[in-house]
Design brief:
Length: 252
């Protein structure tokens, strides 16, 4: 009997963001792989599942390896792929958890590729999850695109000139993997005169959450860190509704 690998994005924070299909897969799993960042005491993915009932004895914690050495990364994912492929051949139901959506800037993409190379005929299912930027937009009530606005999603560039060009070429830019670049990114937005149209979210639904719908005065020192996303709007959002005072004038 062939096993199945299921990739699940647990959402960017609140436990209630876990889709029902993902919950069913989680509860029927024989093994649940849960990544933990190197140096961190707790897995963020596990924190996102606080209050969710499932058999935690089936958890298998793995250290999240993002070494800049490409060869080290290849060996890491090759070993993990071998471990998962062996369990799938035994007929086990294997779940791999990740933060946000499993196929949006996620390590699960590397894991899935490694497993398929070793076990091409394996049964793999990926359940769509909630991305960090979708959760940020909801928390800030910040539309990611209306009408024919063009939205770009990208990891933060290494220099201000590149980011400026991307902003000027799109209506909205979703900026991920900001990290230590936040100070110069905020300085650029203020220099362009658009900081008041932008939003920022970090650790949504978790301890240390930061939410800001106007970045004019956001303190980079207090907001920088892991699990952050920045929503950039080049111009103020267009209003399509009739303002209440306009209705009053019309009735006068």
């Amino acid at each position: 009997m062939s096993g199945r690998l299921t990739g699940i994005g647990v959402g960017p924070g609140p436990a209630g963001y876990l889709p029902l299909a993902a919950l069913a897969a989680l509860r029927s799993a024989d093994v649940i792989y849960i990544p933990r960042a190197r140096g961190a005491e707790l897995s963020v993915a596990l924190q996102c599942l606080e209050g969710v009932e499932f058999d935690r004895s089936r958890l298998c914690e793995i250290e999240f390896n993002m070494d800049p050495d490409r060869q080290v990364l290849q060996e890491h994912y090759a070993q993990l792929g071998q471990q998962l492929a062996a369990q799938l051949r035994e007929g086990l139901q294997v779940v791999y958890l990740t933060i946000g959506d499993a196929l949006t800037y996620s390590t699960y993409g590397y894991v899935l590729a490694a497993v398929r190379d070793l076990y091409p005929e394996c049964d793999c299912v990926t359940l769509p999850g909630i991305t960090s930027y979708a959760a940020a937009a909801a928390a800030l009530e910040w539309p990611l695109g209306v009408g024919k606005e063009r939205t770009l999603i990208l990891p933060c560039p290494e220099d201000a000139a590149t980011l400026r060009a991307e902003i000027e070429g799109h209506d909205i830019v979703v900026l991920m993997k900001v990290g230590a670049r936040l100070p110069w990114v905020l300085a650029l937005l203020r220099e362009m005169g658009i900081a008041q149209h932008c939003g920022f979210a970090r650790r949504i639904g978790l301890e240390g959450e930061v939410l800001a719908s106007d970045l004019t005065a956001l303190d980079a020192a207090g907001a920088s860190g892991y699990l952050a996303v920045l929503l950039i709007r080049k111009t103020a959002q267009a209003q399509r509704h009739r303002a209440p005072h306009e209705n009053s004038k019309g009735n006068a």
